[in-house]
TrEMBL record:
<feature type="domain" description="Pectinesterase catalytic">
    <location>
        <begin position="66"/>
        <end position="358"/>
    </location>
</feature>
<protein>
    <recommendedName>
        <fullName>Pectinesterase</fullName>
        <ecNumber>3.1.1.11</ecNumber>
    </recommendedName>
</protein>
<dbReference type="Pfam" id="PF01095">
    <property type="entry name" value="Pectinesterase"/>
</dbReference>
<dbReference type="GO" id="GO:0045490">
    <property type="term" value="P:pectin catabolic process"/>
</dbReference>
<feature type="active site">
    <location>
        <position position="225"/>
    </location>
</feature>
<dbReference type="InterPro" id="IPR011050">
    <property type="entry name" value="Pectin_lyase_fold/virulence"/>
</dbReference>
<keyword id="KW-0134">Cell wall</keyword>
<keyword id="KW-1133">Transmembrane helix</keyword>
<keyword id="KW-0378">Hydrolase</keyword>
<dbReference type="GO" id="GO:0030599">
    <property type="term" value="F:pectinesterase activity"/>
</dbReference>
<keyword id="KW-0812">Transmembrane</keyword>
<dbReference type="GO" id="GO:0042545">
    <property type="term" value="P:cell wall modification"/>
</dbReference>
<dbReference type="InterPro" id="IPR000070">
    <property type="entry name" value="Pectinesterase_cat"/>
</dbReference>
<dbReference type="InterPro" id="IPR033131">
    <property type="entry name" value="Pectinesterase_Asp_AS"/>
</dbReference>
<keyword id="KW-0472">Membrane</keyword>
<keyword id="KW-0063">Aspartyl esterase</keyword>
<keyword id="KW-0964">Secreted</keyword>
Length: 367
């Protein structure tokens, strides 16, 4: 009976959470919905006495809200001040409610502060922006270099953001300019969730650095390698918008060994803007990028993909693919022999949230 009781409790809490998620979407983030499933084969219709059916909550206990309003109507005027108010080794869900307005500041969420959500009032009205470039000098006099330019940097796990935009407002580089990389956002923590967010920059807008990430209904704008890094990420129902003037590229993925599970899976996205545009570049030797069910406007460069540097023969080791894409640019995305139309067998793992182990940390209603 013990295990029956246990599973009943599990389903009961699942039910309550589902209700809660449906009725209070503003209050509950994906991070509230977190349980550990220790058996991968659960038969929900047949209770058994197996000791393997063992679910327990891991993660945050409790919930706290912090308000930020640039016009003074909240507890804090700046987003960083709100993050600073969260204790080290935070164990609560912390919802930072950010009113409409421009927050002109550089923000860091340190690794010691997991379970934080940035909730804006809409990606067109709540905006965090800064303007650092790679060639600018930091406090120590050293050049920042690309990764430290991000207007917002998150090193913590279980971060989420909803209905808010992140911008880097440094001017777009002229052709041939060096050191003008300027990131809007850097995510280096694991299990990060984004919905309804905007990311605006030119070269290197979104640093999808490390960890498992899920981007839903986001808008990402840039010119060169505007999504880059070694994350393991799914982009679902997103718009990827190029502002390139001479040549641009969307994704530069930095997987460096066949053992790494990283890669970018674009699912049901839209590619728009100006070109010509490479859809993917082999930043790492084993770079992995797949576009599925994605619409391509007529902006794709001849060949579609770029091997980054010819000398390292990356065209033999990368995994670049498309699956059931469409639109006037879709044919060009199959322009090189090392980026092929996939069959279902090789595409299916890039089509579901399991690519980022989402079952364990993304609520069904959030996927
Ligand atoms: C689940 O249990 C039911 C009832 O015992 C059984 O009919 C069904 O085949 C099981 N399904 C799986 C996937 O094991
Ligand atoms: C579970 O174990 C109890 C006690 O051993 C037994 O009475 C019961 O029939 C078992 N239930 C199932 C579904 O196997
Ligand atoms: C917030 O984002 C969600 C997900 O993209 C979207 O459906 C909703 O309309 C957005 N709400 C506002 C106020 O922008
Ligand atoms: C792969 O890259 C090498 C080096 O640039 C080139 O010589 C070769 O033709 C390429 N192979 C294919 C199949 O495109």
């Amino acid at each position: 009976m013990a295990s029956l009781g246990y599973s009943f409790l599990f389903f009961y809490s699942y039910f309550i959470l589902t209700l809660f998620l449906l009725h209070a979407p503003l209050l509950v983030t994906s991070s509230t919905y977190r349980y550990k499933v220790e058996s991968s084969s659960i038969n929900r219709t047949a209770p058994t006495n197996s000791t393997k059916r063992h679910h327990k909550w891991v993660g945050p206990v409790g919930y706290r809200e912090i308000t930020v309003d640039v016009n003074g109507a909240g507890e804090f005027l700046s987003v960083q001040a709100a993050v600073d108010a969260v204790p080290e080794n935070n164990g609560e869900n912390v919802m930072i409610l950010i009113s409409a307005g421009y927050y002109i500041e550089k923000v860091t969420v340190p690794a010691s502060k997991p379970y934080i959500t940035f909730q804006g009032e809409g990606r067109d009205v709540t905006i965090i922006e800064w303007h650092d470039r790679a060639c600018d000098r930091g406090a120590n006099g050293q050049q920042l270099r690309t990764y430290r330019t991000a207007s917002v940097s998150v090193f913590a796990n279980y971060f989420s953001a909803r209905n808010i935009s992140f911008k880097n407002t440094a001017p777009a580089p002229m052709p041939g300019m060096q050191g003008w990389q300027a990131a809007a956002f850097r995510i280096s923590g694991d299990k990060a969730y984004f919905a309804g967010c905007g990311f605006y920059g030119a070269q290197d807008t979104l640093c999808d650095d490390a960890g498992r990430h899920y981007f839903k209904e986001c808008y990402i704008e840039g010119s060169i390698d505007f999504i880059f890094g070694n994350g393991r990420s799914m982009y679902r129902d997103c718009e990827l918008h190029s502002i390139a003037t001479r040549f641009g590229s969307i994704a530069a993925q930095d997987r460096n060994s066949p053992d790494e599970k990283t890669g970018f899976a674009f699912l049901n996205c839209r590619v728009t803007g100006t070109g010509p545009l490479y859809v993917g570049r082999a930043m790492g030797q084993y770079s992995r990028i797949v576009y599925s069910y994605t619409y391509f406007d007529n902006v794709v460069a001849h060949g579609g993909w770029d091997d980054w540097d010819h000398a390292s023969n990356k065209n033999k080791t990368v995994f670049f693919g498309v699956y059931k894409c469409w639109g006037p640019g879709a044919a060009a995305v199959q322009g090189v022999s090392w980026a092929r139309e996939l069959d279902y067998e090789s595409a299916h793992k890039f089509l579901a949230k399991s690519f980022v182990n989402g079952r364990h940390w993304i609520a069904p209603s959030d996927a």
